[in-house]
Description:
The chain has helices spanning 3-10, 17-22, 155-158, 175-183, 223-229, 307-315, 337-342, 354-362, 380-397, 408-413, 429-443; strands spanning 27-31, 48-53, 56-62, 68-72, 86-88, 91-93, 100-101, 107-109, 127-128, 130-133, 136-139, 153-154, 164-171, 234-239, 243-251, 256-265, 269-273, 278-288, 291-300, 318-319, 324-325, 415-416, 420-425. The chain folds into two domains: 27-131, 3-layer Sandwich (Rieske Iron-sulfur Protein), CATH 2.102.10; 153-443, no CATH class. Helices cover 22% and strands 26% of the residues. It is globular.
Amino acid sequence: MKASDNERVTRIGPGTECGRLMRHYWQPVALLDEFDPQLDPSMAQRPLKAVRLLGQDLLLWRDAQGQFALVDRACPHRGADLAFARVEPQGIRCPFHGWQFDAQGQCVQTPGEPAGSTLCQRVQQTRYPLRQACGVLFAWLGNDPSLAPPLPGLDCFAAPQSHTFAFKGMWHCNWLQAFEVGIDPAHTSFLHRFFEDASLEDTYGKQFRNASAGNAHGQRWPMSRVMREGQPPNIAFDETPYGYAITTRRELDESLTHVRVTHALFPHTFVIPLSETMTITQMHVPVDDTHTYWYSLFTSFDEPVQRQRMRDQRLVGVTLPDYLPRKHAGNRWGFDPEEQRTRTYLGMGEDDINVHDQWACESMGEIQDRTKEHLGTTDKIIMANRRWLLRTMDAMARGHTPGGVANAEVAQATTGPDTVDGIAPSDQWQAWWREQVQRKRAAAPWT
Length: 447
C-alpha cells in the first residue's frame, strides 16, 4: 500500500477523508453498564462522563428522567471543560459562569446576565443523536442528523435483553489494524493455537474452547483441535450490500471439512460464531488515530445469557471504569516463554484470546506501516476491504455518500447475518451449514 493511502484509511479526526466516512455510520459510544453504580459507584451521584470518539472530545450524561445526551465537551460560552459540570435535576451547569443546559443541549439559564436577558434562548450546544440497543449507546456524528440511517436489523439488536450481553475493551492502536485482525480467517490456526484441548464442560463464553457443531467420526471436536489439526484454510468471500460474507474451510480428512462462515460489515464490524448457539458482533470503534475500543455484542439462540458470568470472565482482563487492559506492551502482554514452549503457540494465556489479538494489533505500532507488508493469498479479504475503503473515499470526493449500512435501505434490509462453525461432510458442506443455521433459528425462543 502507498504511504498516502495508508494515511487516508487510518486518520479519522474531523475533516479527514476516513473521518468523514465514519461519521455516516452509527458508532458505539458507551455501554449502559458504564452508568451502573454497582460497576462504577461514582455514577450514583453524578451520571456524567467525558468520552472521546472519532477524535472528538464529547460529554455523555443522563438526566433525572433517565434520558441520555451526547454533546460537545466544551461549554459554548467560553470553552470551559464540561467534564467538570455540576449535575442538577434540570440539567448540567458549567461551574465557570453557571450557564445551565438541558438534555436537548438547549441553554436554559445564564444567571450572570441582566434580568430579562434572552441570551440563553439563542445558545444551543451541539448535540448528537443517540440510540440504545443490546446494552450499548450508539451515536451518530454526521453533520445532518436527519440523514442518520436506522440501525441495521442484526441479531444482536433483534434479540431481547435476556439473550444479549455487551462488553468492551481498549487497544492502543489504530482502528484499521484492529478490524483487519478480526476479519482475517487464517490467523486463528496459529495465534489461537493450543497444544492441549480443555474439557468441553467448562467452555461457556470462551472462544476456541467450545466444540464445533457436527462431529468427526462420531466425535465432537473442540475448536482448539480443529485449528491445530485442520489443513491450511481455503478462504472464499462474496460481496454483499453490507460488506462481505466469508467462508473458511479446513479439510480434516477425505470425507470431512470444517466450515466457518463469518461476516464483515463495512466499515468496522464483524459477526462470528462463539459456539453452536451464540454469536459475537464485534465493532472496532476509533477513539482517535491511535486508540480503539472493541465492543463485543453477544447473542444467544438458546438459553438466556449468563450475563454476570460473562462479565466476570472478562473483568479479569480489564480495569473499570475505563475498560483498560491489564496486559499491555509495558508488561509484555503477559508473555510466558515456558507457556509458548509447552502449552500455546503464542505464550500469552489460555483463557482470554482477546489478549492474543491485542498483541497482534498493538505490536504493529500505533499506526501500522502498510508500505512494508508482503501480503499472501490468505490476505485476500484484507485486500478487498482496503479497496472498498479507498473506493468509497474516492466516491465521497465526487459527492457520493458511502454505502453499506450507512444507506437506509441497506440498513433496513440487513438481518442476521447467519454464522456457523462446524464439521460437515466434504461433499455436502454447503447444504449442511444452511441446515444448521435453520435449525438454530427455529430453536431460538425469540426468533
